[in-house]
What we know:
- The protein folds into two domains: 7-252, no CATH class; 273-402, no CATH class.
- Strand 7 and strand 8 (372-373) form a beta hairpin.
- The strands form two sheets. A six-stranded mixed beta sheet has the order 5-4-3-2-1-6. It has a two-stranded antiparallel sheet with strand order 7-8.
- It has helices spanning 7-11, 14-32, 82-95, 105-113, 129-138, 144-155, 161-171, 175-183, 194-203, 209-232, 241-256, 277-284, 293-315, 321-343, 351-363, 376-388, 398-402; strands at 39-42, 48-51, 57-63, 115-121, 185-189, 237-240, 368-369, 372-373.
- By secondary structure, it is an alpha/beta fold.
- The protein is built from 17 helices and eight strands.
Amino acid sequence: MNSVKTHYEKTSADSKEIGFDFQYLCFISKLLDLNINQKITYEEKDDIHIESPNGKLTLIQVKHSIQTNIDGETKNLTELDTDLWKTLYNWTQVITDPIDGRKNKKEQLEFLKNTKFVLLTNKNIATNPVLLKIKNFKDKCIKPNEFKKYLEDLKSTTTNLEIVKHIETISKLDKNVFNSFIDSISTEQAKTSIIEEIKQKIKNKMIKDTRVIDVFCAIYAKLKVDFFEKVHKGEKQSISYDQFLKEYTPIFENFKTTFLPYRIFNPVLPENLQEQFFLQELVEIGDIGVNDIEEMADYTESMLNLKMNLNKWYEDNELTQDEIKRFHENAYLIWKNSHKEHHINSILDNDNQEACSCLFDLRKKILKVKQTELEVSPSNGEFYYLANEKEIGWKKYWQTKYKK
C-alpha cells in the first residue's frame, strides 16, 4: 500500500474537523451531567471547564485520534505522546501564570487546592506508563523523588526537543506545587461512541428510545446556534445549571409528552413533478402555473413529509393502522364538507373559481393526529396526499377526469 499522501490528503481538514466535533460532543456530554449551581464553559480556561459554587474548578483537556491499530481499535496513548506532554505542560503554565495572579508558590498552591485537571481522550490509556506512574504517585505507591527520577530518565529516551522542554518544565515545579499538581490529575477514556454516550444520558432522563434521537438533535441544534451567536459577539459559550434548566428542559419535556414528534425529513422528490395527479389538478384550476417547479416541489415536500411521519409513528408504535385510517377518513370528511359548500350552487362557468375557493379553505384547516395538532404544512400535505391518491379533488366533477 502506498503510504505517501497526496497534496489533497495533506491539506484535508477531515481529521481536524472530527477532532473539533468530538470536543464539542464531550462538552454536551458534560453539560448533561451538570449539577445544581455549576457552570460549564467551552474553550475558555481549557477545552472545557466546570465551575462549582464552592470555588472548585475542573479543567478538561480533550484529545481525539482517528488512528487505529491492526485490530481496528483506537491506538494507545504512548509514553512519549505529544498530546500527553503538551497537555501536562499547558497545565503547568496555567498553574504558574503570573498574569492570572499565580507568580509565587503560595498562590499556586491555593489555586491547586481548588482545581482538578482531567485528560479526556478516546485513545487507549490503560497501559500508558506515565499515567500509571501518576496513579501510583496518587496512591502513595511511589515517592515524589522516584517520580521525578522517572521523568529525568524518560527525558533521555527522546530526541523530540519539544517533549524534553515539557518534561523539564514539569520537573522544575516547586516540590509542593509538583506534588499537589500530580495529585490533581485524572483521566477519562471515551470507551464507546461519544454520541451513544450522550444518547444514553438523554435516555436516563426518562426519554423513551424512539424519541432519544429527536432530543439529541434538538439540543445539538440549539447549542450550535447559541455557540455561533456567542462567538459572533466575541463571547465564550457558558451555560449555568439554571440556564440549562430554563432553556433546554422544555426540549426534554416536549418529547416526554404523549404528543407525536413531527420530524422534518429531506425526501427524494419524484423525477417528473408535474406528472403527479394532485399537481395536474392544481395546474388545471389555476392555482399554480405549469412551470412553477419551485412551488410544486414545496407542495410535494409537504405531502411526502406527512407520509414519512405517519410511517415513522407507525414503525415506532406511536400510531396504529386504525388510527392512521381514521386520520385519513377525518381529513376526507373535512374535504367533503368544504367541497359541497363551495360547489352546491356553482355553475360550470365558475368551476375553477369554486375549486380554488375549496382548496384555499382547506389550506387553512389544522388537522390532528390523536392529540397532536399538526402545523399548516403537514395539514396541507394530507389533502395533497388524498388528492394524489384520487380520493378527493377540487372541481365539481373532478372524478370524471382524475378517478377513471
